[in-house]
Structures are given as C-alpha cells and as structure tokens.
Amino acid sequence: MSHNPQPESPWFALPGHRVIALEGRDAIAFLQSQCMNDVEAAPPGRWQWNGWLTPKGRVIALFALARISAEAAWLIVPDADADALAAQLQRFVLRRQLVMKVLDEIHVAGRFEAPEKAAGASFAGTPEDGIEFDLTGFGLRRTLRIAAGHSAPVDEEAEMRWRASDLRLGFPRLPASQQEQWTPQMLSLDRLHAFSVKKGCYPGQEIVARTHFLGQVKRGLTMFECPNEPEVGANVDVGAAPLGQVVSSARNGEGWIALAVLPVERPEAVVATKGMALRERALLAGLAR
User: Fold this and answer.
1) What local confidence, expressed as pLDDT, does residue 2 receive?
2) CATH of the domain spanning 12-168
3) 289 to each of 96, 136, 138, 192, how far by Cα in Å?
4) Which of 241, 249, 237, 243 is nearest to 277 (CA)?
5) Distance between CA atoms of 65 and 127, rounded to whole angstroms?
6) What is the DSSP-derived secondary structure letter of residue 192?
7) Model pTM score
8) Which regions in the chain score pLDDT beneath 50?
C-alpha cells in the first residue's frame, strides 16, 4: 500500500469574483442601513452571506461580506457588475464619512482543498498578505483566497466545477437577467442565514419581514439535474402547468445542474423545462454562515 500523500488541488482564478472595499468611520453603519443581513452582528475577522435589495424586496446582488476591521468591510461579489454596484451604493452615501472602491489590484482564487487556517465564518489572514475563506460544505472541500499580486491561472473546467458546487450547496449564482426578480425567501436564502428580519430598516426590509412573520413563503429554491444546458429564465413546467422558472445553471461533469424557483407545495407530476425532463435533487447543507 502506498503512503505517498495525494497532490494538493491547485489554485485557479475566479475572475467573475471582485471585491468592493468600504472603509471609514461610517462604513459599517452605512452597510447596516443598506444590506439585508445584520452587518453589526459580524465582528472583525468574521464573514456572512449578504445582499442588496430593491425597495420592493427583490435581490439586486448577492455577496459575502467580510468585516476586515472595526471600520472596514469587503463585499466579495461573484456575479453582479462590481463597478455598477459600487456606483449604485455610492448614491446613498450622502454625507457619511467613508471611502468605497473596487479593488482591482487584488485577485480572487479558489481551490478544492480545506483551508489551512480559516474555519466556518472566521476568515484568516490580512489584506496585505492575503485572506482565505472557508467555503466547504457537506464533504465539498473548498477554499477561497483573496490576495494582491499575480492572479492564479485560468482553469475554465475548475471554475465551472466551483460554480456547480455553489449551486449544489444552495448559493444561487444570478446572471443579470435574474437580478431584481426574486425575494430572499424565494431564493431560500434563509438556508444560508443570509438575511435578517429583526434588525432595523434597510431597502426591502418591510417586504421581507412581512413575508416571514405572516408565513407567506409560497415559493423556494429547488435543485434539478438535467442532461443538457437549461435556459436560464425559461419556465419550469410541472405536468402541463408552468409553475416556476430556472434562475441559474452550471455544467456538472457530463450533465448540468439547475436551480429553479417553484411553489413549495406543488402536484406530483413530471417536471420539465422546454420539453427537457428535470430530476429533482436535494440541496446540500453546510454553507450556512
């Protein structure tokens, strides 16, 4: 029997992920007033899933929010246009004392290994030397790293595998066509502890809280496997009735994974999108922070 250690999985670039930094006396208070999760509940050295909503409670962008220090935070944005998002947020800064900028000089990379020091919601490292985040869940070992200098090599296959892992763990990757379409509850973001119904006001808070406290969550996220690429935005038919919509997808080996928003209660019938049968699978746990 060989006792040679297995080679570590290499780092690869996640070029779609970009970082928005906010720093200053009012940075945390500003984020608390704008973001859907309780920013003040995360002390320095911790991170959480978070997002920004329209006044009608629809998700504009999802991101990881890391408390870098008492007066600084990073938004790690995987899908939304970081420059456009920062410009939109800047409109609400007004006279608050903070600086916001997109950090183009740093790069985001991932690898399919457990982190060396980060664990759960605690990240490890410094902005100067690089920061690692634990994105493992249900046996899927994953580390995300943010560092200055040269980016990791591009590996489209590994990047797609990372995206598929996000979907399997219940983190929806939203293209531009799916932004401002769904409430946090419709995307089942309660599984990730990604929004708060108890903190003070933020855009869309009234809709989110009312839905929660009145028990009106009628739709949620469902994962499917399918043989070919599903069309994002296409209807999902349960039997003959169009009851849902595909919100994101990723290639998974020789097949595909799709996340769709569907009624929580629906009839037992064949599920398909544009004539292609979908096989429902359970979302994996472990990514909650």
Assistant:
1) 43
2) 3.30.1360.120
3) 29, 11, 14, 6
4) 237
5) 14
6) G
7) 0.94
8) 1-3
